[in-house]
Fold each of these.
Amino acid sequence: MLELRGVRHRYEGRVVLDLEQFTIPRTGATAVVGHNGAGKSTLLRLLALLETPTQGQVLFDGTVVPRRSPAALRRRVTLVEQRPILFRGTVRENLEYGLRVRDVGRTAANGILADVVERLGLQALLSRRRHELSDGEIQRVAVARALALRTDVLLLDEPASSADRAAAGALYRALAAERAARPFAVCIASHQLEDAYRWADDIRALAEGRLSPVTPENLFRVELPAGDGVKTVRVGTIALVLMTDRTGPAVVAVSPTDIFVSREPLPSSARNVLKGRVTGMAIEHRGAGVHVRADMGGVELVAAVTAEAARDLALTPGGAVVFSFKASAVQVF
Amino acid sequence: MDFLAEGFRRAWGLLVAGDSEVYGIALLTLKVAVVATAISCAVGLPLGYFLATRRFWGRRAALTVVNTALAFPTVVVGLLLYGLLSRRGPLGGLGWLYTWQAIVVGDVLLALPIAAALSAAAVQGVDPRIRRTAATLGAGSWRTAWTVVREARFALAAVITAAFGQVVAEIGAAMMVGGNIRGSTRTLTTAVALYTAQGDFGLALALGLVLLILALVVNIALQVLQGRGHA
């Protein structure tokens, strides 16, 4: 549906985004993950047709978008920025803004607003003004303001960064309900892998403005057995010990930074001790860290260590390695 | 001090008595100021918005020109306008020299840079996310501009006040192209200068007080309008 082709985007002469191709499908959720400054927000602004790439093209439904994108085209996509801003006026007036732009009738607008207000729990905020809201509330109102427009493409830049756990849950539930109600494309930029793991059908990693071939690591779909507490699940040929009260299908993840790397198994409290062989090593952000990729009998895991630790352990591709992590380090989504 | 007190007594007497000359001059001044402020703001505010929001070749130079024009001496504007409007000048055919319209043109030339430069600064002071948010919610360029104007309303009201202040207090151009003709082009500032020179201090003071009251009333009106807004 939305595509960037051969895009090189510069700010003050510096290339901040360099993408051969980036496509958002007509339906489904795409997550873009990466560190702060990786180019996620710039990418979303280009996809939202708010900026024109210095070089390259933006295509909407296969047609090249002109340099000054027409409002009719922009109305099919909307972006919620990482630090959204509300206009002068009440929350209700903010929620109505995009609907008024689209000349939606009063009755229809009221129906749409009632729907998003209920989904995001905004009833108590409707008559408040921006200076009476917390950052998390502003973010929730901004998401509601965007959801109300029912655009073909919804772009969310760190949508839950200022929200507490409950508010973030409400936000993602509202998003899931909207996705269940109608087909549309959603693209979420996040530096929190948890968000990506939980909601996205497709995850892309961005590093230094480029798509990284390294996708978010150590993510597995599993079937959780019944019962509470410590459980063992199969991931291919390996067994993962984890702690959860949930049952049924789930996604589990182990953060690469939660994994201890050694040459031999070490006595410790870690319930997961996996032996394997190093398949690759990649120097990470600014050379301070190394991503160690290892094959654990058909299942690939990645651990992050400092460059110094990698040197001390004398890790080399093909060499033996042991990954250890606690049951509580396995996140369940 | 007696001399000052006598001046104030005379001024008060003229104002209370509803002196036709004083009120005639005040009304003409108000008419000229309102028309000139309206024209300069109608052109200057959109120009300021354009300069603040659009990226085009020569934008920086245009902003420099507008900012330089802020310091344009009023007598120089009067002199240039005199040359244009005099019978032998390119605009002599209009027959505007020594009319209130000529004063309006001079005032517009002086207030326009104020309206453009200060409104550009006011718009640049609005959080850039406002424009982006309006655009991503589907607003076209006019509605986006209106949304930005609503955000910058306090600063823009100050721009209108500054433009009015420039126009109502202006004397150089008014004197040169208006001619200070009694009952026709005599404004408060030119009249104050004339009556002071003639030694009629009381009348000059009365007109000076009217000028102050006029400025005060307009400022209060704008402040009331600003005060109605909420964040």
Amino acid sequence: MKVLVPIKRVIDYNVKVRVKADNSNVDLANVKMAINPFCEIAVEEAVRLKEAGIATEVIAVSIGNKSCQEQLRTALALGADRAIQIETDESLDSINIAKLLQKIVEEEQPQLVILGKQSIDSDNNQTGQMLAALTGMAQGTFASAVSIDGDKVNVTREVDSGLQTLALTLPAIVTTDLRLNEPRYASLPNIMKAKRKPLVVKAAADFGIDLTPRTNLIKVTPPAERKAGIIVESIDELVEKLKNEAKVIS
Amino acid sequence: MSILVFAEHDNSELKADTLKTVAAAQAIGGDIHLLVAGHNCQAVAEAASKVNGVSKVLVADNAAYEHQLAENVSLLVTELAADYNHIMATALTTGKNFMPRVAALLDVTQISDIIAVESSDTFVRPIYAGNAIATVQSLDSKKVITVRSTGFDAVATDGNAEIIAVDKVTDAGISSYVSEQLSVSERPELGAASVIISGGRGMQNGENFKLLDGIADKLGAAIGASRAAVDAGFVPNDMQVGQTGKIVAPDLYIAVGISGAIQHLAGMKDSKVIVAINKDAEAPIFQVADYGLVADLFNALPELESKL
Ligand SMILES: Cc1cc2nc3c(=O)[nH]c(=O)nc-3n(C[C@H](O)[C@H](O)[C@H](O)COP(=O)(O)OP(=O)(O)OC[C@H]3O[C@@H](n4cnc5c(N)ncnc54)[C@H](O)[C@@H]3O)c2cc1C
Ligand SMILES: Nc1ncnc2c1ncn2[C@@H]1O[C@H](COP(=O)(O)O)[C@@H](O)[C@H]1O
């Protein structure tokens, strides 16, 4: 079966982003970018399915400007077979991302689509669920275990109260949580090989979808800064402060 | 204007977070209805009818909604949505799971995780793990919104709403519940606790988390963890606090053996008072702590327990 993995180029998770002085957005100039960590886990899961002889082909797709080809090459180096870039210079709302992905699902007919649960930039946590609704597929979100079982996939999900396992009819959508797997590092030979794997570019505008923005970003401000407090010298001092100064314990 | 709020519950209890989501709905303003979708959930419906500011409680009580499968609940909510301008749910795992499906079926984009309401179409939400705060206007005709509970104060529960049965049954038939592994704890839930004590990788193993128990008992605290502690298998996933775990804002948060990575801070830096216990004086957690103690936790925790 084919597995489709949508991936997003985002700020590296170690970077603490800053807000632009004019409050129009965050400042991404000269910031280190990377594949969204949850998407990396998605690629790893798809590649493992291929190594297990369950998946036949792993296709990575990314929607963005030319620079997201870098992350598609990373996915190819991690073991994806081919890549699709849907080119746009706009930063699209999730519903429009999901509609473009729906077109790719219609073209490619994958049995499984694995997405990250959340982009660490927009923190939206919605694209996978939207794609599932648009394609009429079942969804297993926040997955910490995935196993294919005939024409079904069993997904164990990280939920507020613990873990929940669902059985989904294929084709289905899975979104990854952090504990699903630990992604491998791409080896140098695989990085070299990735350069020769197919990467096709399609223009977002050619899909015949109305991509009009659904949101208007009015402003972006820095969060309220917490000022560092004091260092206490002993447990006695700590308990005294919590009782008499902060008054949070009695 | 009318607003539909999805009630968060486990078929027996209405979760307190719903009271905060209703507060967010009140900030938008309008006639507020609560939807209780579940199975054998009459007790929840009763509790929901007491939530202040709610005029009607819609109860969809059917086996198809027992586990609140996203495929089924989203169809129900989408049908009901015809009568509402705003559809809201708490940004917990149930709401995060099904609400974007509702948004897509209505052909709108979701505004996730709002922490404040500016107007009926403009909302404030953290992005980049809370390192930036965005003010976003929704241009869609219907607004599908998830609410971060830490941004709102719970409404009271001395109301008296009318309870109305909804007999629509929408079973998509493509997903089914297999099993669950619930964490059972006598302690308050992370989202509801006024005191939280969390352990990180510095705890070294799961056994050592017992060092937090006595303190939690004395303070009536919930116990949380960093992702590193969860990943290392010290404690279960539902204890994770952070950008991609639970978001909390208790009166007192005590971080023990936690370095203070941005992803962890994203989940707790709105706590009223933060205490950090770490043996490394340079640990970034001290930059957000009101009270820092540079100490070995294996000495500090027993002493703290004895002095409370
Ligand atoms: C996409 C993504 C999402 C993430 N989401 C989350 C999230 O939601 N929540 C989260 O917490 N993390 C998250 N992380 C992980 C995060 O980046 C950090 O790796 C993690 O928070 C570190 O946990 P820690 O502080 O327990 O461990 P460490 O960073 O290893 O820190 C351990 C601390 O313990 C101290 N220590 C050790 N021994 C002792 C002792 N005996 N006494 C006192 N102090 C001691 C050390 O000085 C150190 O400061 C995420 C990462 C990624 C990539
Ligand atoms: N521009 C994009 N291109 C490809 N996949 C995307 C894009 N944006 C989001 N996704 C996918 O959707 C997941 C969830 O993103 P979000 O809903 O934005 O939090 C990501 O982890 C990706 O798998």
Amino acid sequence: MKVVYSDVLIIGAGLAGLRTAVAARQRGFDPLVLSLVPAKRSHSVAAQGGMQASLGNSVRGAGDSEDIHFEDTVRGSDWGCDQTVARMFTHLAPKAVRELAAWGVAWSRVRGGDRQVVINGESVTIHEPLGAHGLITARDFGGTRKWRTCYTSDGTGHAMLYTMGDQAIAHGVPVLERQEALALIHEGGRCYGAVVRDLITGELGAYLARATVVATGGYGRLWSASTNALINEGMGAALALETGVARLGNMEAVQFHPTAIVPTGILMTEGCRGDGGLLRDVNGHRFMPDYEPQKKELASRDVVSRRMAEHIRAGKGVQSSYGEHLWLDITGLGAAHIDRNLREVKEICQYFLGIDPVKDWIPVRPTQHYSMGGIRTDYRGESPWLRGLFSCGEAACWDLHGFNRLGGNSVAETVVAGMVVGEYVADFCASADGDLPSAGAIVQEFVEREQGRIDAILTSSGDESPTALRRQMETVMMDRVGLFRKADDLERAVSELSDLLRRSHWLGIRNRRRDANPELVAAYRLPRMIKLALTIAMGALARTESRGAHYREDYPERNDRDWLCRTLAVWPAEEDALPLLEYEPLTVNTMELPPGFRGYGTRNIIDHPDTPARETAVETTRQTVADPTARQEAIMPFLHLLPERYRGANQRFVHPTSPEN
Amino acid sequence: MSQRTLTLQIFRHNPRDPDSQPHLQSYTVEEIPGMTLFVVLTRIREDQDPTLSFDFVCRAGICGSCAMVINGRPGLACRTLTESLPTTITLLPLPGFELIGDLSVNTGRWMRGLSERLQAWIQQLAPANVDALEAPMDPDVAEQIYEIDRCVECGCCIAACGNARMREDFIGAVGFNKVVRFRADPRDTRSDADWYEIIGDDNGIFGCLTLLGCQDVCPKGLSLQTQIAFLRRKMVTASFA
């Protein structure tokens, strides 16, 4: 049996995984990164528009702070997030962007002096301070009060991942490509590593480590239309679910991005609207101001997506052979701006649609985009149920995003989480808990179990097709667990998915090779994907309220009284037909920002009984405690939760009072 | 447009199977509007032949996974529309890289090896203080760096390079482009004398025969011709310094 030892086994080589690996290496531990694909092909590379960090260098970001970023993030989450984690995150985001700047990301920079921008469909002149010339600039994004999204044209993820990939190489971090983790090895509440299959040779091995980190991204490919890369099949979350011990958090919290092109589902960055792009209907009418007069196209993503779907339902969609869509119009931005700041958008339009967005409107519709849910961890990134199992990035739910993620907060989260979780992983490795006990028998048992599963598929006489069942699963998710949800749809989804799970035990494959075999891979992933789909559909069915991206037509109100809680899903035994759901409360009395109205549509909230008292308490503290540090400590302390090296205050450019500078 | 029937001639070989002989296998697919080679290959694998190996990840022309030789020309399969091709389409794996099987090649290992050889990362004297205001950079310089940094390491330039066929260790346009990228970056502390140590030989800048197949096929439209000429001038100067 092949056994490979390291200090930290990291599954996934996107931004979160690589940053964690670099942190572990800097602390003197040996990381080993496994990836399905070469590191620089990870889905992080596809992030276009940018990364939120409250640097406040641009004149439109003047006055920005961690405080405002925090409030935007909590509101964006529809009060579903962990506010302590949101505080940690907004404190670290400026450090992360500056670290990446030092490591080589060519962030777009402030150009001092006058410049033309498009705001609300109008061309406007703004004056950037000359003193900020050359500092990192930012663009507007949805759901934010300041221009806060740092960017590199519309290839931000590419620039970040290439820099991080280069740094991983510089730090000597080994990345084993085309390796797939099939199971986490664990016993007695301690994770020891993973059973790993080489996707070229088919060989299984045991990769043992003091700490195991899952950073495999989201689960968008459970839906038939997703902006996600093909590798985002949720296998990291499935690894955790199949332990029968670790919990997944808020799996029903799934974001649909407003602007993916039709029919391929390829993303058009939110930067299109941030930079001044408009949404239009079949009549060419700009409809968002009718629904959301304040934020218009730049309302939170969940809101814009729902408004678009609502508008299509009202008969204002554009008919096409691929179903109805709406238009994204960036023609007002001009060729020079598009060639400089939206070049990927232009390239995708040319190659996949045969149009030029400088003069043509882009066919778009809401499409699955982001998984707020994932492996439930504490603020350190560790599973409370399985010591030594950590997770970060989109794969995890340490719970920065609650029920809706703000644009620009995902790539920011990947690197921030890598910085934080990497330090805590190193602390764990350095502690007595971090010793790797000898675990011979259990390792053998896990490897044999996975070999048995593969052998069973390769020799099966079953007649169910993995391709056919997978398409059915994707259709169920699309039709019944999408943007608008209701009880009868979700009940049918659960029953149909259960049926698919049963049938997935009788898969038959035509290609019986043990080495590189894509059909075998599809077959062993399918039951895991269906299990995840069940946690999502059941979570959505049980949650009889609407919060952020989880919208129940039969329960349109946000119900803080009964549902201010996080869904936890666990799958106790392999033979179980369904997951178990549990809930952990979000405590109003410890919140810095007590639940309130987000300001979209009309107020439709069943309040939590503790909210008024908490509002008063927070307000009183704000009035009576003058020192900002003491005030934060009194309302909601968080600095002590950060690794010591990241507790320092963030320096900012001081904007001149005279606009001439 | 009347519907066409496409004939795909696809390279097949499994280097791990002693009985496997490299050959072309034929498949037919009914064309649909807006069809890409990603759609074609996925359908063939799902409906006709589950043994076919190929690599797609982003399927949006961003990640560089799916480069292959399409009717004689290296390119990204995911964003190649079948309507831009004749009814007979021949697909071969990228030459110059280890064959994993059929259309799948190991570009990842090659590219990592290249980065290690070139030390293709920012080399600084001291780590940055992440609490402090970042060092300013001229906005035009930042844009120039990003322009060069847009390479997706797809391997097309290596596949199209005559010299790379003859010299296994030739760093190729992807390598030159990386050197130009870090050389242009004010954050990097290396001098031309340092770069000369790394690329001042026949596996580096003096090996290029200026055939410029790289320039013709780069899916990102990078100015490889200009970068190579520029770098050669700088390295010739460095050699006399």
